[in-house]
Amino acid sequence: MKKFRIVILSFLFGVAPVFAQQGTGTIMGYVYGSDSITAVPFASVWIDFNGDVIGVKSDYNGKYKLSAIQPGVYNLHSSAIMEGKTQASGVNVYAESIAKHDLYLPGNDTLATVIVSGDPLIKLEHIETIPLSDIQNSPNIQDPKRMLSNRSSEVKVSPNGELIIRGSRPGDVVYFVDGVKQTNMQSVPGVSINSMSVYTGGIPAKYGDTTGGVVILNTKSYFDLYYAWKASQN
Q1: Interstrand relation of 103-104 and 126-130 (parallel, antiparallel or unpaired)
Q2: pLDDT value at position 4?
Q3: What is the mean pLDDT of the chain?
Q4: Which CATH superfamily is domain 2-104 in?
Q5: Sheet holding 126-130: strands in order across?
Q6: Is-contact 214 154, C-beta < 8 A?
Q7: What is the pTM for the complete model shown?
């Protein structure tokens, strides 16, 4: 029995160093740019391990550290925007040790230009804008609602003088005069309008919850009136 205990103790103490050796290692170093001097911050650094990717980002000084790596031989990769990418092959990692390896990116200061052509799939906004020159020359300058209806086939004027946009019910249209929400624009004379726009669809959320459309009026400021008067004197 005593001999049996000695055999067990010998076995345990004999294999303990073997298990202790099954530790992990570390890969660390710096990432530099194409001049081999300037550190590259926030570069991606990674290795492939049994199909999995183990990676980190370099810090502000370009330093990186990959920890808890199983002993073996790895291909070390790095990439960064505007700096390109690189690979270091055959990096040896040993248990309980640090493999120091600096990476040098080749530099790539050319960004690819992507040109997207064609019509968008979804037109987010449907807006008709009448500039000041058209307002001044319009025969309906005294009737802004009629002016809008003549500019867009989606805008109509009801018999009682209310705007109807895309078949909406009378009273559903919202008006903003110099940024102030109003229920109508009867009190705004046409000669005082500096610009006028109407949303017939895709109404931005900042104009509130309405399905009838939005009319935006910007009136002339004192300076606009002064310069117009001054120009008429010449």
Answers
A1: unpaired
A2: 45
A3: 77
A4: Immunoglobulins (2.60.40.10)
A5: 126-130, 193-201, 214-219, 174-177, 180-182
A6: no
A7: 0.43
Q: Please provide the DSSP assignment of 54-110 as one string.
A: EEEE--TTSEEEEEEEPSEEEEEEEEETTTEEEEEEEEEE-TT-EEE--EE------
Q: Using CB atoms within 10 A of its CB, is residue 106 exposed (0-12), middle (13-18) or buried (19+)?
A: exposed
Q: Is the pLDDT of residue 64 over 90?
A: yes
* Residues 104-122: tens digit of each pLDDT: 998 865 444 444 444 444 4
Report the candidate in 53, 58, 56, 16 with the shortest Cα–Cα distance to residue 40. 58
Query: Which of 129, 142, 136 has the alpha carbon at shortest distance from 196?
Result: 129
From the candidate CATH numbers 2.170.130.10, 3.30.360.10, 3.40.50.300, 3.10.20.30, the one assigned to the domain spanning 126-232: 2.170.130.10
